[in-house]
Amino acid sequence: MNFTLKQVQYFVATAEALSINKACKEFNRSQSALTNALSELETALDVKLFNRSHGGLTLTHEGHRFLISARRIMASVKDSINDLSEIKSEKDGELVIGVTSLLAGYYLSEPLTRFSHQFPQVQVRLLEDEQRYIEHQLVNGETDVGILMTRQLEEQDAFETETLTTSPLNVWLPVNHPFNAQQSISMTDLKDEPMILLTANQVDRVIGRAWRRYNPAIRPAYKTKSVESLRNLVGAGLGLAIVPDFAYRPWTLDMQRVETRPIREELPTIDIGLVWRRGSHAHWTIEEFINLVRDFAKTSRKTAY
After folding, report:
1. Order of strands across the sheet with 195-198?
2. CB burial string 6-45: b at 16+ within 10 A, e below
3. CA distances, 226 to each of 41, 103, 222 (Å)
4. Which of 207-211, 221-225, 280-284 comes out lowest in average pLDDT?
5. CA–CA distance, 26 with 10 (Å, rounded to integer)
6. pLDDT in tens, 159-179
7. Residue 25 to residue 202: CA distance in whole angstroms
8. pLDDT surpasses 80 at 48
9. Residue 54 pLDDT > 90, yes or no?
10. pTM here?
């Protein structure tokens, strides 16, 4: 079984785009050259990787399996190149951090400030995107470490994780709402209330599963990806919301107060943690960042108590 790294590169690009034309443009190669390389790869592996039809390309079962391995091959190559770069310069480095917009404002600024002060020579790049895309970048070795919702990872087996904090779901309500007289709120109390749904980071899926345990399917009055928009809507009295505790701040941008109450029933928590690719050789910048964030989380928990 002999195949080349270039053939693997061509396969990954074609499999992810499901288009030979797009892969040709990426590598500036002719269609015949790329098609021949893929055919030679299938011969070397003795499997069919693609189904070809007038409707386009689709991956076979073997193709899906090999795509996972091929991504690991490419990531291992990237690790080897990084090792050589590390030998050339032990002081300089680069760190690529993936984080979702929901978590960036709550878990990144302080650790990043400390890291930049301790290692000013390291170039830090932030990738802020949807969690699914960051997972893809981590698997490919294009992102070094992520700060993500660990329970919502789609490829759990591909990653090492370390939980930084566990955040319960609470109810947010305006200051003049009758529920403020209660120490806690039941999910059944909310069935006739207008609800505002936070859709960022697939939090709505977690809330939806919890909601269906106690009430019919949730029919929100409003939906928003923005925590600040949600906070303003609640403060204005337009509805209640179920939101992870870490996002709570008592005042809206219009200086209207928002109250929060725990939920009596036991609901899933939102676990926030560090995520990095399983089996990868961690560059010293990754190890230093993980250690720094880990220490920061421990200090923050002690301060909270």
Report:
1. 222-224, 195-198, 240-244, 169-174, 258-262
2. ebbbbbbbbbbeeebeebbebeebeeeebbebbeebbeeb
3. 46, 11, 12
4. 280-284
5. 9
6. 999 988 889 999 999 999 999
7. 34
8. yes
9. no
10. 0.64
DSSP secondary structure, 41-70, as one string: HHHHHTS--EEEETTEEEE-HHHHHHHHHH
User: Which residues, 6+ apart, have CB-to-CB distance to 247 below 8 Å?
Assistant: 102, 106, 227
Q: Is residue 243 within a helix (H) or strand (E), and if so which, with residue range?
A: strand 240-244
- CA atoms of 55 and 18, how far apart (whole Å): 11
> 140, 74 in Cβ contact below 8 A?
yes
pLDDT tens, position by position, 232-270: 999 999 999 999 998 999 988 888 999 999 999 988 888
Tokens 């003795």 belong to which residue?
46
Among 189, 162, 112, which Cα is nearest to 273's?
162
Bridge partners of 52? 57
Contact status, residue 169 vs residue 267, Cβ threshold 8 Å: yes
Composition of the chain by helix, strand, coil, percent to 5 = 50, 25, 25
Radius of gyration for the alpha carbons in the chain, expressed in angstroms and rounded: 24
Which residues, at least 6 apart from 29, have a Cβ–Cβ distance to it below 8 Å? 10
Cβ neighbors of 86 (< 8 A, separation 6 or more) are: 93, 283, 284
Cβ–Cβ under 8 Å, residues 231 and 172: yes
Tokens describing residue 192: 């006739």
CA 36 to chain centre: 36
82, 148, 109: which is closest to 286 by C-alpha?
Answer: 82
Q: At what angle do helices 61-88 and 5-17 cross, to 10 degrees?
A: 120
The secondary structure of 253-301, three-state, reads: CCCCEEEEEEECCCCCCEEEEEEEECCCCCCHHHHHHHHHHHHHHHHHH
Q: Which value, to the nearest 10 degrees, does the dihedral of the CA atoms of residues 213, 249, 273, 268 take?
A: -10
